[in-house]
Amino acid sequence: MNKDTAHSLSSPRGTSITLLVLAILLTSATLRAPITGVGSLIGQIQADTGLSHTMTGMLTTLPLIAFAIFALVAPKLSRRFGMEWTLIYCMVALTAGIAIRYFPNTLALFAGTALIGSAIAVCNVLIPGLIKREFPHKVGLMTSLYTSSMNMWAAIASGISIPLSNSFLGWRGSLSSWVILSIVTTLIWLPQLRRKPAKIGSNGSVTSRKSGSVWRSSVAWKVTIFMGLQSVMFYVGITWLPEILHEQGMSPGKAGWMLSLMQIMSMAGSFIMPLIASRMRSQKLLAASSAALFLIGFGGIWLGLPSFAPLFIMLIGLGCGTTFSLVILFFSLRTRTAEQAAELSGMAQSIGYLLASIGPTLFGFLHDRSGNWDTPLATMVFISLFAIAFGFLAGRKGYIHPE
To answer: How many other β-carbons are positioned within 10 Å of the β-carbon of residue 149?
Structure first.
């Protein structure tokens, strides 16, 4: 290591950047773990509280609704308070929401969940803009680390929630244990208040360009629809695939492991794809081929071939990871400023998570009406075709507000 490199790493600026990267990675962990842990504990929660299936299902639907609503507010909060202050406020709110869920009454459980979803929604929107502002020449690498860390901790939360609940903690303690992570994350963000935003050149200027509303941009709508379609695929998959596989003859235990396999492949896809996509002038073929994995995966499940089920699940998981990380990357690649990135992120995630909240319910409704899984799975195959088309359109080189 030469003297210049050693000096850059030990300098105040180098230390500050290291802490910023750590803050982003810790934040990514808090954006999924407090939510995905709920799914594993649904049975215990229902048995203890006496909630109906509909009300229990709201524990996973509430955060998605909050994502859709508060994603639109995030850019305004960022302009009003600054990105770093807004992220710290969200971490405080997230910590409070996790703590509130520990209180032994149903109202606290739902109130805490709603607060958690609201805080996560704002962070979801702002982090891609922050990455564009602070790492304009390493957007692919930082997006890769951010999305893969998010998926990794989502899988960890799903896996350890039951063991934690079976200990002296119980299911409330299992859900509340994530308060430790959120407190640490809040503390790591505090030094960022002393930093000055990175000075970025014309390709990533922090200043706003008055080019019109992001909602009037055709590029923004292509990215938004692609975001929505891939969100439907993911949330339908984690909600219904285990039950579908069980009805096709797979044991409940093995069907549950298939969901873990899906999340592992999603994590791998979300790490690799931004590293590849950020080096290319156009991502249209990458996006279309990633969405095509849904077509093959859900189409294969529709055929009902149990011996090939792990392969189809792996393809769906890989599709979830690659398409999600591409959308997050598009927030930077299709915008010129950090503020535009936050606005596009807010728009895409608001519409995307609104569709995601509808998808699993619609899928279940189609099953109830038809009496089988053929109609819902055929619908997913049909939606996959739209995902391929909009992935191709969103992946074409361009900006939401061209010069």
So the answer is: 21
